[in-house]
Amino acid sequence: MSDQLRQPSPELFFETVNAYQRTATIKAALELDVFTAIGEGRRTIQALAARCETSERGMRILCDYLVILSFLTKVNGQYGLTQDSALFLDRRSEAYIGNATEFLLSPMIMDGFEDIVAAVRKGGTVIPEDGTVAPENPVWVKFARGMASMMALPAKLIAKFLDIGDGRNLKVLDIAASHGLFGIEIALLNPNAEVVALDWPNVLEVAKENAQNAGVSERYSTLEGSAFDVNYGNGYDIVLLTNFLHHFDPSTCEGLLKKVHASLAAGGRVVTLEMVANEDRVSPPIPASFSMIMLASTPRGDAYTFSELQRMFENTGFLHNELHQLPPTMQRIVISHK
Amino acid sequence: MSDQLRQPSPELFFETVNAYQRTATIKAALELDVFTAIGEGRRTIQALAARCETSERGMRILCDYLVILSFLTKVNGQYGLTQDSALFLDRRSEAYIGNATEFLLSPMIMDGFEDIVAAVRKGGTVIPEDGTVAPENPVWVKFARGMASMMALPAKLIAKFLDIGDGRNLKVLDIAASHGLFGIEIALLNPNAEVVALDWPNVLEVAKENAQNAGVSERYSTLEGSAFDVNYGNGYDIVLLTNFLHHFDPSTCEGLLKKVHASLAAGGRVVTLEMVANEDRVSPPIPASFSMIMLASTPRGDAYTFSELQRMFENTGFLHNELHQLPPTMQRIVISHK
After folding, report:
1. Looking at the domain B151-337, which fold is it?
2. Which fold has domain A11-96?
3. Is the ipTM of this complex over 0.90?
């Protein structure tokens, strides 16, 4: 219905004010492992309450709320998983992403939303010491552990997109490597790819663990420190810049991109994975609203538009940039050519 | 798109985990009075930042997020109010409901969502002393002050619905009167209506203030105490039971309804205003999800279905019950006849 035709309603206001209740409920549902219990075939309140060790009354109210939020189905009083819940929220699924809450709901991120008035006044985070971009912030170990599950698919899609499975020699630099999955997927696809992962030492422990588990440790080395300070070396065919630029303002990004440009071999490419907002800055909803997370948790970060990213790359010597969707993920990639 | 046809997506999970950010943002927008500033004609980031004393960068990110959430429009970089935001969130509007956050986001309500796992296990609130239903809980003064704006419309609609504007003598009991608006609107519509308002003494101060402002004080008296203990008197034509039964379990409700039945004159009516869930308990979204608020904040409260309410009234001697919508509000009324 168009805004003009329908009756005025306080519903959006009421739902938005109470939205924190959704966060609290999905967190509890994951902790109680309700999705796994339903996936195992428990479809009644009685069976679910017994399996998850809760009261029946509490389980009934929880499951009904999860139906309202579209995480569950309810037919004749029996609960079922939606396609997405079966894939992403049943702990037995390989694509389980429930542990992303360890990062997404970590105090470092949530604290930034305690006082949005102050953040809007200031124009950046009011968390002390620059919020999430403080050196060696332990929140990035949580990211590396918790978000790996959400990044597994984009990592596979990017490796495939790059068309490097032909066994050519390939030197890859993974900046702010985190869990390391982006570089590791390339190493898995191309047996002659060598990956250098750069991050804080505590975070690199997670990347090395993952490289070990993937069986690519011999072609996996690390550079410890800040991406702004460490010497990258040179001759890279591919530089991975995933979930990184959004933490900084454009001039800081450009400082980094100059270093990246210098480290690339002729014909080298940068792969930037980002929450890219459309030029209107209000769509698509998830990437565009990512700006608010950056306002709350960083001094000057943002969800950049493609034209803003393009400008940063052009200002630092790159020849041209392509924007690509990465469905079904919420993110997009920019490929920038030296 | 049907759930079967579209690609799997982690979007719902991501949005739900981050939903608390919506709460934080609407709260900040109201505190900064952004809606009023736009209503006054400030439509650019520069003008809004100046008026609300914020950074331009923070205001831009805030306003874009409010567009994403559908509170604002954005056309050619200029922001505007939606119909609902103009009516409900511009402080100059008579229907302004922004101060409802004083109650909706009071610690007493929000604390109940700190540990939903524990509430689901227990089957009721884990807030000490029975949560919001503790005697003389000061949260009800916040309700009376903050929620009056949201209850003004249902109060008018109910008074009109009751068809009592003909000047007949009318004795009205308003149980858990809070701001008093439900009784006051009846007194405004019928000059021979006498209203008795029952609530905790601290809450009745708000009701008396509102009765005074409405010019009906002479026909407005009060009964201090708990609705479960106080002697109501008798001979009432109408008993108002607004936003009350959902706090208690059915047997507690029935204990109260017996008292209510005894207090009514022959042919008397009870008006119950409630978040009434459909029989499936998962629709309509707002009333059905109200169960979760009751789980988090009361020992045994619920968003009852019509058949559950009907059973309580039938068990306590009422002859028949009618369910009525109260558009455009989110609530419904049940009229029960002695």
Report:
1. Rossmann fold (3.40.50)
2. Arc Repressor Mutant, subunit A (1.10.10)
3. yes
